[in-house]
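SUBJECT: A protein chain and its fold
Encoding: whole-number codes for local backbone shapes
RECORD BEGINS BELOW THIS LINE
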Amino acid sequence: MLQNTANDRLRVILAQPRGFCAGVVRAVDIVELALQKYGPPIYVRHEIVHNRHVVDDLIAKGAHFVEELSEVPDGAITIFSAHGVPRAVINEAKSRGLPTLDATCPLVSKVHNQGRHYIARGRTLVLIGHAGHPEVEGTLGQIDGPTYLVQNEAEIAALPFADDTPIAYVTQTTLSVDDTSALIDALKKRFTDVVGPETRDICYATQNRQSAVRDLARVADLILVVGARNSSNSNRLCEIARESGVPGYLVADGSQVDPVWLEGVKVVGLTAGASAPEVLVEDVINALRRIAPVDVTTLDGIEESVRFRLPLELEENVTARANRAARGR
């Protein structure tokens, strides 16, 4: 195990980019601004993002997270999570007259629109994704027409269509770009008429974080990924580290860092999934400092500048607040 001596300093290299993406920032802002504008309680269907720290912080501010709309009292402000929801949920909210705010990531909404576009043109739609993931459930429920979920090449081989069936595909946004490319290739080998978005249309944040992990793997002896167990994109980052030949571990926070992992390790690569806040990255660094002296640097990488607009009713609230602040100067 590392000794806490000056000769056993641990280099920690931070991935760039890491942590919150624009879709997560927008979703969390929607909940916080709704709490400020309408007051607690407000209700959120499913976890707004897959991170317990973020969810607990919002609960402390007055948010209530529910699995079904039946748990929402009549008239209560209701927010749909960043992963998106089926149309049936939207219709249920409308039938009950619930005031709603949609925190669905715009890039997830883009997938919904692509799927509708292909269905409207008479193509059989294939969704590449993980069964049971909220984003996949939302996408399946947003598209009018049969949509066939596939998770691997065996399921593509088992699709019950003739090889000349016009096929289109869309993908879950948080998948590994490499895995998605392999499944798209399998579709094109099986069927003669296949269309769909390029892999570059997969969430920019997913691609950027995966590329940063590959860069980390070239210089690190070990990679730690800060994220939740139910976070698809965080799990993919861990898998990419391992596929790159470097041990990778998923940790929710600093309390889960095992000193045994650091035996013989001189350089730790550290990143975070798109729903993990920077405060948890700092918590992991502090945990490492309790094991050995630490030098922290950041790997050169992409500086993300993407920002997504808030719902109009909250944009107006932000603008009014900014104007009041300006008048108070």
Observations:
- DSSP finds eleven helices and 13 strands in the chain.
